[in-house]
């Protein structure tokens, strides 16, 4: 692994070139460590948007385990995990909601995902970074909810979403 790649994995993405810095996490969590300190918290009452002008309220997604992945097109670790998230979405047992924290037009995010062949990842946008601030997220951050909309765990940093360790973690929602 190159020094640059290692640096990005350890540091995560915390700002877009020229953009506003994201908030510092409330407590230092090791990259890749499963954080259960928010276990049982309800899905937040936020709305995200898609390229067609559609909206979805997160609370409407109860009924199936949900993985919210906060990412951005300028975040190398985020981009690296997109193929594995796409494979996870293809399995159909977990709803994968990738929410871009980019402050750009949603069409650009949709094109970005399409160029990478991630056909199962829907391009949702949080242009005001409300979710990023709510979760005090460093990108990428993923939050896993059970079918009742209660948080099970979260993780900061990229993950191999179709590996055996993650499969065991995702089974915790059943």
What does this structure look like?
The chain contains five helices and eight strands. By secondary structure, it is α+β, with helices and mostly antiparallel strands. The chain has an eight-stranded mixed sheet. The longest helix has 16 residues, at 76-91.
Keywords:
174 residues; alpha+beta; 8-stranded mixed beta sheet; 5 helices; 28% helix; globular; disordered N terminus
What's this model, at a glance?
The chain is of the alpha+beta class and 174 residues long. Helix content is 28%, strand content 20%. Strand 5, helix 3 and strand 6 (124-125) form a beta-alpha-beta unit.
Oligomeric grouping of the chains: single chain
Please give the largest β-sheet.
Answer: 8 strands, mixed
The low-confidence parts are 1-11, 15-19, 22-26
What is the strand content?
Answer: 15-25%
Number of helices: 5
Structural class, by secondary structure, is: alpha+beta
Assign a percent range to the helix content.
Answer: 25-40%
Radius of gyration: 15 Å
Number of strands: 8
Mean pLDDT metric: 86
Strand order of the largest sheet: 1-8-7-4-5-6-2-3
Shape: globular
Q: What is the succession of H and E elements?
A: HEEEEHEHEHEEH
